[in-house]
Amino acid sequence: xxxxxxxxxxxxxxxxxxxxxxxxxxxxxxxxxxxxxxxxxxxxxxxxxxxxxxxxxxxxxxxxxxxxxxxxxxxxxxxxxxxxxxxxxxxxxxxxxxxxxxxxxxxxx
Length: 109
Description:
The protein is α+β, with helices and mostly antiparallel strands. It has helices at about 25-40, 60-70, 95-100; strands at about 5-10, 45-50, 80, 85-90. Strand 1, helix 1 (about 25-40) and strand 2 (about 45-50) form a beta-alpha-beta unit. This is YuzD family protein. Pfam families: DUF1462 (PF07315).
């Protein structure tokens, strides 16, 4: 069974979220997730994307979500697997792994 392509998007900023003092920065989380997922899964079907919420968004869906983050005062980083928000603030690997399993991403052999 071939895994479908999976998009992992991390929304964040260089400045650490005020409510997440002591947590790693968004860019660090982005890099950590890639390493952690790559150790457990065949990450060939996975595309990673980092969106800095303080930079002008190139895509409409990112711009709209950044507006939502501000309006709803969401904690970042925020992690999406495809169109499903799976983490807000400090991400939990188990939750992200469960979502990858749902999408048929294959474990490392």
